[in-house]
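## Example pair
The file below holds two records. Each record gives the amino-acid sequence first, followed by its structure token line.
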Amino acid sequence: MIASMALLGFVFNACNNELEFVEEGLSNGVSFSTTRASANQVFGLFETDFLAGQKIKAGTISIWNDYDNVYVKFATKDGWQIRRTHLFIGPKDILLDPANGYVNKNGSPKNGHFPYGEYFDPFVTEWVFSLPLTELYAMFGLDFDMEVDVCPVIAAHAEVLKQKADGTWQEETAWGNGNKFVKKGNWSMYVEGYCTEFPPEDPPTPPTEYTLKTETGWAFDSDDHEYGGNWAKYIQYNGEPLTVMILAGQKETDMTVTLTPAGEGKVKMVFENIFEIAPENDGKWVLQDVKEAIKVQGYATAPSGNPAPGQFTYYKGRELEIVVDAANYYGIHLDVAKLTYK
């Protein structure tokens, strides 16, 4: 998508050093990404912090390639959102030569003139840009050749915002963490460290045969919280955020479930370190291949006696993030297994 936009310059106050600088608007003919999904194959992955206001880790900048394209991903976290992006990717000497228009005569970036970018309304938390490798290699004066690696620099800039508790917005300028354009002055940066990478041969075919060591799992917070009659466990919940372990076959694991208030008499449950059956999850805990692998029951008072998970009513399914009715006690039962591919 090619857009012609005339945008007014804007001023950001960078936190901590009261730095103020004006960025130029997007020039006519700026290119916009048409890619919204990342590649299936990831080679040469390089990541760096996405810094807002110089010191706030507002997310990550990721760079990688497959056999056809190079990708740059802007991703925010902790409530930060993206309003506008500016991106340069290519040879370092092209970026830093004032004659090319990406920096001024003092070396400071004119990020409004970077060749790629996009404006978002509403705001987003992720932007993925792709560039054909043929175009990237042409910038280096080369024909695309998987036997030859190139190492472009990336200047990744964005306007980011975060809504405060009082409803107002904190606005910052953000850059991918790397080398400063200039030693003195503004803190804008470009990133070095990524180089194209191609496997010497096609990746091996993923294994298809596997075994499952099945176990029964229960959420656990105290040895005192047993139904009685067998080792089945329940947990107590007081309405505050709570993370508890999931026992499998009465043994400790790295599986957890986190409970948080969800408002209007509801509780959110998020299960971690539990996966689906797939080659990339070899050696991990997975849900068994059953329709209702997770079962939840709530209680007003502490339960007793042998539980019947098949009759639990608060939730039955396979989702790893669920919302259930609030209760003082919960029985959380899982059908899990340790996955091993042959």
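Second record, same layout:
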Amino acid sequence: MNTYFAIITSMFSQLLKTFSWEEDIRFLDIKLINIGDFTELVVRFALNLLLIFIIVHFMYARNSKRKDFYFSYLSIGVIVFLMCFLLSSVKLELGFAMGLFAIFGIIRYRTDAIPIKEMTYLFIVIGISVINALANKKVSYTELMFTNGIILLGLWFLEKRLSLKQENSITLIYEKIENINTMRKSELLADLQERTGIAIKRYEIQKIDFLRDIAEITLFYNVNGND
């Protein structure tokens, strides 16, 4: 695996060298191009983007049947990777990575509530981007690929083999107060399923108002519609 990436890196470097660019050409005391660093950026970016796309498209979107976080996951993964890679020379490394998690944690509390599974995928996308960007030269490409592979394998196992389903909920006002009784659970569940057309996994009675003969009920169901 190391040989494979070394060949790709070497070929890309030779391609860049065929142009008339020189590494020592500077503008405002900054190199116009550093072939080695630029090659590493391209290779790592391609690897990270491919991994994030596989996770978001083939694991998250297909299993949860939701695409409202699709754009967010891809864009956050790209931005976090570029931030970490370009600022890694500042020697912030682990402290910088943990700071990113703290920043996104603060943002989380100032936005609408995000389901636990979506938050988990967000953490995974950020974590993968940080790993691929900040892995120094002591970490071989084989170790990097093995780490990414373990993450992919773990997500695949949780989604496919354990059949973890995305659960959602809806709260409604129910007026047949006579069904709000521990002896009439089956009648209540049947009536709720007939009215909503939802395959209800479970329900929770949040509030009962006998003065108005209504109850507030939260229904829980799988997003993909399976039991």
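Notes on the second record: The first helix runs from residue 2 to 17. The first strand starts at residue 26 and ends at 27.
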